[in-house]
UniProtKB/TrEMBL annotation:
Keywords in alphabetical order: Hydrolase, Metal-binding, Metalloprotease, Protease, Zinc
Protein name, per record: DNA repair protein
Source organism: Mesonia mobilis
PROSITE patterns per record: MPN (PS50249), UPF0758 (PS01302)
Domain spans labelled MPN: 24-149
Keyword Hydrolase: yes
């Protein structure tokens, strides 16, 4: 008698052609896309953490919401984050999260999480190009632009 185990299937379905997608050239491009795809009804209510998934040419493959939290924070499970990155065959990511309070200053927790994700990405050969904090007033802070990355 055979032992029964679950069979795991992994798939990725892109529905955009390369010439109709968005290429990230700078933090402003990433911020523009983030604001376009952020639920404006919740940006000042609760913190969300998302990732922009990119191919090797910095063309956006998609946006994935990793977590949704409370007023002052959200938990990010790196296993889920990188499961999505690997499943989508992305070679680079940009981290995104909002500060409902409107402050652009990254917290120590923001800095530590960023470093943790960068280190994990290095092991998997996935580049973390930036981490943006966005606010309800459509302002943003770029870790890369500020030399923090």
């Amino acid at each position: 008698m055979k032992t029964k185990v679950n069979e795991i299937q992994i798939s990725y379905h892109g529905n955009q052609t390369i010439n109709t997608t968005f290429k990230i050239g700078c933090s402003q491009d990433a911020a523009k896309l983030a604001f376009e795809h952020w639920d404006q009804n919740h940006i000042e209510m609760q913190e969300h953490f998302k990732i922009l998934l990119l191919n090797n040419s910095n063309i956006v493959k998609g946006i994935y919401e990793v977590s949704k939290g409370g007023i002052t924070g959200t938990l990010v499970d790196l296993r889920i984050l990188f499961a999505v990155v690997l499943k989508s065959l992305s070679t680079a990511i940009i981290l995104l999260h909002n500060h409902p309070s409107g402050t652009l200053k990254p917290s120590e927790a923001d800095r530590q999480l960023t470093q943790k994700i960068i280190k994990a990405g290095e092991l998997l050969d996935v580049k973390v190009l930036d981490h943006l904090i966005i606010t309800p007033k459509k302002e943003y802070y770029s870790f890369a632009d500020q030399g923090v990355l």
